[in-house]
Every structure is written in structure tokens, then in C-alpha cells.
Amino acid sequence: MLGLGVVLMFSLMLSAQCPLQNTAFKSGEHLTYNLYYNWKFVWVKAGTASMSTVQSNYKGKPSWRASLVTRGNEKVDHYFVLRDTILSYTTLDLCPLYYRKGAREGKRYYIDEVFYDYTGGKINTRQHRQHADGTHSWTKNTFKDCIYDMLSIFVRARSFNSEGWKKGHVIDFRMVDGNSCENAQLVYRGKSTIKGDNGVKYRCLQLSYMELDDGKYKRVVDFYVTDDNKHIPVRLDMFLKFGSAKAFIVGIKESK
Predict the structure, then answer these.
(1) Residue 226: left if φ>0, alpha if ψ -120 to 50, beta else—which one?
(2) Is 170 exposed, middle or buried (0-12, 13-18, 19+ CB in 10 A)?
(3) Span 158-170, mean pLDDT?
(4) Can you count the helices (H) and strands (E) in the chain?
(5) For residue 24, what is the DSSP state?
(6) Looking at the predicted structure, is the pLDDT value of residue 7 above 50?
């Protein structure tokens, strides 16, 4: 009976974690981008972004560590300051373990954290936000279904099998940040050819990340990822509160 109990508990934990085999990247991948802002109908080169993924450890267990850093330059700082650093740890089968976002957006600076725990066959989260005024708030939630943050769902989506998808195909999921949980979607928009800032043309899949806002889904980011098993993001179109921005791939470094 003890052995059966252990097997059942392990099965429950796997069910809660929603594991997915990584088919997209290896440790040491590093991607770099040029950022452009739309200012009064003119696109201005306004900074850089980079994304790195390495195999690491989280609380002594093997994990993936993904980081996304965006840096606006001084040219546009007097219009809008953008300094984001986002960190995500996941299991090797792409289940979220920890998330942190430190963001300076305009005059506002805040920190979000999410801690994931999978005991009891459910997903338990502790969510922390350090507000712009320096105060802190903590929230605890328990979920029966899979739950993600903005970076872990992006890392996970790179290993989705898009074979057979048609335009309009929707993937529903729930996303947490430092103080809330919201319904979200990834919507497949079809294929197109995208030219990066490295001069290379890529055949891409277009995915839209959508957030529920006042009962309607709002388009937040469009991702253009290579139409292969790696699904490398080569362009991002971001629909921001202050306007719009784009990121184009500059460099791709993959481990051998």
C-alpha cells in the first residue's frame, strides 16, 4: 500500500505540474535584439534587449533559468524610461518554479515575484509585489490547473507542436504576476517571412499573446518565431500603454 500511495502522489504532482518536453533550446542560448519605439508616427531605435537560457539549479534541483533584459537608451528616456529585468526558473520539463520582474516603466518602479509549489497534487503560489511607493503585498493562491507567468509561458510555448494548427487556433491558460491571476490566450495568426536586423530572412509563425481586460481579450504582444523545432523569436511587436514598440533579432548564439 505504501508503494501504491507513493505512485499515486507522484502521479498527482506530475498532473499538477503539466510537464512538457523541451525540444527548442539547449543550455547557453543567447539572443540579442534591437528595440524600436513608435513616436509620433516615426520609428526610433531606442535600446536593446537580450534573452538567455542556461541549465542551472533551483533549491538544489536541476532547472532552466531564463532571463529577459530590456534597456531603453538615453535618446528616448525623456519620453519614456524602460528598464526591465525578468527572471524565470522552470523544471527541466518546463514547469514554473520561480518568477521575478523588476521594472522601471516611466516614473514607476516595482518588483513582482511568484513562488510555485506542487505539493498535494495542486499548484500553490505565493505572490509578492513591491509597489512603486515601497510598500509590499503578499498573496497566496491554490490552483487545480496549470498556471504560468509571462516568461515561463513564453519559454514553454517554444516547445509547442504547431503541426496541424490553423489560423485562429487558441491556447487558453491562466497567468499570475505579483498580485493577481488573469485569463490569457495565445492565438496563432499564420506564417510570414520576417527579416531580422542581422539581414537574415526567416520563415516564421506568428503568435499573439492576449490578456483579458474588461471582459474582452486585448492584444499585448505578437511573437514571430522560426518555423522549426527551435521556435527562436526573431521579432516582437509590443502594444504598450504609451504607444508601441518592436524588437528585431540581431544575434543568435547557440551552444554546440
Answers:
(1) beta
(2) exposed
(3) 94
(4) 3, 14
(5) S
(6) no
Q: Running DSSP on this structure, what letter comes out for residue 199?
A: S
Beta bridge partners of 118: none
In tens, the pLDDT along 79-110 reads 666 678 999 999 999 999 999 999 877 677 88
Q: Has residue 17 got a pLDDT over 70?
A: no
Report the alpha-carbon distance of residue 251 to residue 254 in Å, rounded. 10
Please tell me whether the overall predicted TM-score, pTM, comes out greater than 0.85 for this model: yes
Q: What average pLDDT does this structure show over 148-176?
A: 94
3-state secondary structure the chain: CHHHHHHHHHHHHHHHHCCCCCCCCCCCEEEEEEEEEEECCEEEEEEEEEEEEEEEEECCEEEEEEEEEEEECHHHHCCCCEEEEEEEEECCCCCEEEEEEEEEECCEEEEEEEEEECHHHCEEEEEEEECCCCCEEEEEEEECCCCECHHHHHHHHCCCCCCCCCCCCEEEEEEECCCCEEEEEEEEEEEEEEECCCCCEEEEEEEEEEEEECCEEEEEEEEEEECCCCCCEEEEEEEECCEEEEEEEEEEECCC
Decide if pLDDT at 4 tops 70: no
Cell numbers standing for residue 126: 505565493
φ/ψ of 254, rounded to 5, equals -115, 145
> In the numeric block, which cell numbers belong to residue 231?
521556435
Q: Which residues pair with 239 in a beta bridge?
A: 244
Q: In 99-121, which positions are buried (b, 16+ CB within 10 angstroms) versus exposed (e)?
A: bbbbbebeeeebbbbbebebeeb
CA–chain centroid gap for 83, Å, is: 16
